[in-house]
Design a protein that fits this description.
By secondary structure, the protein is an alpha/beta fold. It is 42% helix and 15% strand. Helix 4 links the parallel strand 3 and strand 4.
């Protein structure tokens, strides 16, 4: 059975779907798709929302199509079925621990798990900003995932 890497942000329309898509591509390149799969959700998502236009556009320029992504609300089944849960910020991590304390042993911020310095554990939300902010966010996420895949 594959181990699920779950990425979590606020609305599941920007950061976590970008992380999911980038991770899927990297897992494929590293030949790890038989061992791992990726998913994403939001702590305050509106079920069924599409990915933001800018997230779709930025990833498309990198050869990834997330136009069929639809937001999901984080739930207990996702928590239970995940091998590891990677949040975009410390606040997301705290929110999850408040509601799902059983997630504690597999819950990290993305940058925490990638072993960044503690003062650099949050990935800023690009929602409402221009494509340059989305490109910067995508690069930040991609670099962290690269470090993580080297650990797996």
């Amino acid at each position: 059975m594959k181990k699920t890497i779950l990425f979590v942000c606020t609305g599941n329309t920007c950061r976590s779907p970008m992380a999911e898509a980038l991770c899927k591509r990297m897992l494929k390149k590293k030949g790890l798709v038989s061992e791992y799969e990726c998913s994403s959700a939001g702590v305050y998502a509106f079920e069924g929302d599409s990915a933001s236009y800018e997230a779709i556009s930025v990833l498309k320029k990198s050869g990834i199509d997330i136009s069929r992504h639809y937001a999901k609300v984080l739930d207990l089944d996702m928590i239970r079925n995940s091998y590891i849960i990677l949040t975009m910020t410390r606040d997301h991590k705290r929110m999850i621990l408040d509601v799902f304390p059983e997630a504690a042993d597999k819950l990290y911020t993305l940058k925490e798990y990638a072993e960044y310095d503690r003062d650099d554990w949050d990935i800023s939300d690009p929602f409402g900003l221009d494509e340059n902010a989305y490109f910067a966010c995508m690069s930040e996420i991609e670099n962290a995932i690269l470090k993580i895949l080297d650990k797996l």
